[in-house]
UniProtKB/TrEMBL annotation:
Alphabetical keyword list: Cell membrane, Membrane, Transmembrane, Transmembrane helix
Matching InterPro entries: ATP_synth_I, ATP_synth_I_Bacilli
Name of the protein in question: ATP synthase subunit I
Keyword Transport: no
Localisation: Cell membrane
């Protein structure tokens, strides 16, 4: 289920990034679109990294191997790095749009996980009933 949600998330984010690049290129709101592009790109990278770590975590738990962490420090340091880049180039990159882009990415993956969890649970109930 998580693999399906992450695959759908990647597809949605790439479409959204394509639209944002068009907005950046053809409108006068280039700093806002660039901030959104950077935030969503970071959230795409971060969620892919987290999904890989969660899958690895699940495999190691099944094998009774101790797992160190899910990479929170590396994701936080990545967010701090792009915030520093946005602060350095504040005339070209909107910090609020950057933050909004990160939040949008995480919001979409949560919605996808709820959606695919609901579909998966309703399919298993239908299969259990035999109808």
């Amino acid at each position: 289920m998580m693999e399906i949600a992450v695959k759908s998330f990647k597809k949605q984010m790439l479409y959204l990034l394509a639209l944002l690049v068009l907005g950046w290129g053809f409108t006068s709101y280039s700093s806002q679109f660039l901030g959104l592009i950077m935030g969503i790109s970071f959230s795409l990278f971060s969620i892919n990294y987290l999904a890989k770590k969660v899958t690895n975590f699940g495999e190691k738990v099944v094998k009774n191997i101790r797992v160190k962490s899910l990479g929170m420090l590396s994701r936080f340091s990545g967010a701090a790095l792009i915030a520093l880049v946005a602060a350095k180039y504040e005339t070209h990159i909107s910090s609020m749009a950057l933050l909004l882009g990160i939040v949008i990415g995480y919001s979409i993956i949560v919605i996808n996980l709820f959606y695919y969890n609901f579909i998966h649970s309703s399919e298993s109930e239908v299969n259990k009933d035999g109808t």
